[in-house]
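Supplementary Note 2. Why include the ligand at all?

Several targets in our set were suspected to adopt different conformations when bound, so apo predictions alone were not considered sufficient. For every target with a known small-molecule partner we therefore ran a joint prediction. The input for 26V is given below.
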Amino acid sequence: MFELMDGFLKNDPGSLQKDILHHVEYTVARSRFSFDDFEAYQALAHSVRDRLIERWHDTQQHFKKKDPKRLYFLSLEFLMGRSLSNSVINLGIRDQCAEALSQLGFEYEVLAEQEGDAALGNGGLARLSACQMDSLATLDYPAWGYGLRYQYGLFRQIILDGFQYEQPDYWLNFGNPWEIERVHVSYPVKFYGSVTEEVVNGKKCNVWTPGETVEAVAYDNPIPGYGTRNTINLRLWAAKPSDGYDIESYNTGDYINAIVNRQKAEIISNVLYPDDRSYQGKELRLKQQYFFVSASLQDIIRRFKDVHGNFDDFPDKVALQLNDTHPSISIAELMRVLLDEEHLGWKKSWNIVKQVFSFTTHTVLPQALEKVPVDLFQNVLPRHLQIIYDINFAFMEELKKKIGQDYSRLSRMSIVEEGAVKNIRVANLSIVCSHTVNGVSRAHYELLKTRVFKDFYELWPEKFQYKTNGVTQRRWIVVSNPSLCALISKWLGTESWIRDIDLLAHLREYASNSDLQQEWMTVKKINKMRLAEYIETMSGVKVSLDAMFDVQVKRIHEYKRQLLNILGVIHRYDCIKNMGKDERKKVVPRVCIIGGKAPPGYEIAKKIIKLCHAVAETINNDDDVGDLLKLVFIPDYNVSVAELVIPGSDLSQHISTAGHEASGTGSMKFLMNGCLLLATADGSTNEIIEEIGLENMFIFGAKINEVPALREKDSTIKAPLQFVRVVRMVRDGYFGFKDYFKSLCDSVENGKDFYLLGSDFASYLEAQAAADRAYVDKTKWSEMSILCTAASAKFSSDRTIEDYAEETWGVQPCKCPF
Ligand code: 26V
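The joint prediction is reproduced in token form.
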């Protein structure tokens, strides 16, 4: 049935077509003479999956033979989005698939749209993991990703009357062709119970008698590299009841209840927690963390032991990367396994543990640092709590020798936080037990050293590093902007930049070439057209393609300052309304686009969404303003929507209060797509400025170091009149919902304005005006746009991953021959 070449599936259109028809009939179980777009998508996906599996097998075989040091990337979140287009591009079979389908009467692009998003993550951190997996595969690193297979991904955002409502994301309802269920790869994960001291073989031991066992079953997701046969694995764990689960009920004869109770085990991997940047020490969250970490470590140790007789080589063969503190319980778990199951003793176990973990932190907000109440820990993982206490005791002793009796510093650095509620500070545990702590941009690293982890930096300066984030050009140019991709390849005379991103810098040489400029802007226009169509379908608003598309898409949070953007739009509206006819002729038409999800419990963020809709309602229905200004909210922003929005943007906003965005990665995707940035000097923007130059961006606002002093200042001095005026418009009910918006207005006035909207407002408006002036000069604007793409090379996740491999993990590429 399948056409093989040298034992491999063939990739010509004819063979692909046969495979697709085979899957229509035998996998999708439809007649090959009658199937619809979705069924054709399923059959295509299965045909691609077959090819992924071949490569996956070869890669794993090769890794096994070579036994290199492997990187294990532990993350509670992976925001993969759709897989089809990414896979066919990385496999190099995009055109063949399109041809095979066209002969069957289907259009490739239409089928690709049938796929839903895999949204097993919240935002920045989760999409970063996905980009990094793509780079790890492409650069041939012997890596594995480990995470949780949530039944429900990130909630869907529904907008009714301008208010956000959350709906569950039933992403598995229509099947998932990209995963392979491994019914035989499963491990028991234990919770609760008690610890007793016992004498085993003449030695005193702590014995944990758990109270509950849940089975972790593996689902493998092949991740293909681009231009290589290497295909790595993302292994996600699903919770299933173990054979012994709730055995008591069976014994008491309550058969029906016993079956019903068994389902409770599955709750662990049911749902992804939305990120609201505050940890509340929830039992289920702790269980999720331990569940995936325990299963992953059992899997990693089994693989290691298949080849190695003892643990001496463990640090030379295993690198464990902690993606934020979410998987940090793995530190205590590895210690427990080595101590209690492998009986290596404390010294040897600790020596191994401290060599294998590296930790990357993704936050600057202290309230986002994870803390788990000791009581909760004691109940769920009593043995792990003991181990953490022992680690902390040893650390405190060592620290006292170094710094003496400085009790306030000792208590700040302790892993255990004393107080009314005793907590485990997971970040402190991670720092103490990792060989390296990474920040995600240079600015973030400076903040870690001087503020967030100052005490630790002073103790162990050599532990601290940073790897500026990056995004994959495969997803963010090749998949999402095929016309730009073709144009870049044409002008560079090669497609090699898709693997070797530094080549992109050569675009600089042609930035002032009028032919390129013209072709470049034509591509932008086509992408704007696609976006305009989408906007019209989603919101019913017709937008002009001559207008500047000005976009802010990201999670809604006060520190990201979508409110500053909206107040700026109100100001623009107010100015237009007060202009005469002649003055209006000079106005640069704008379409302001905002999109993003508010955390379900975050009241102010939800009000910002409502305000955006209320203002949009007024502006978009004002015929007097017409095409000069439109405001639209794009609902349910996700990876697929981003793939549509980013290529069609002229200007994008990254306007967090300086010192609050650890890095920001959205800006890098816009940069790659030739979109100009209007931004504060926060996170990775500082490094973007270095690459592209201030003259090609619109930078405004207080600098990181100025923020603390500004917060001290009297608020009445800070806010300019224009600011007072626009806030007053909202307060007075110009956009309706007067009472509802009161608390939102209060949050930026009356001495509160913690995120400094008032004090940055004037310079924000200046930056906006500078963007208007630049947009009028089409030649200049096209040149700047080309320079953006040319300057984006540094922000490829390929660069980030190479730096991690070299400076943090100590892993080398292991390329699969063929
Ligand atoms: C926190 C929580 C707390 C409640 C439970 C669920 C949950 C999930 C995630 C988080 C922390 C998310 C941290 C995060 O996404 N940070 C972002 O990481 C990006 C990649 O490094 C970076 O570009 C952004 O600046 C940073 O905000």
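The domain at 518-795 is CATH 3.40.50.2000 (Rossmann fold). Residues 122-125, 128, 273, 275-277, 279, 362-363, 368, 440, 469, 661-665, 683 surround 26V (CB under 6 Å). Comparable summaries for the other entries are listed in the accompanying table.
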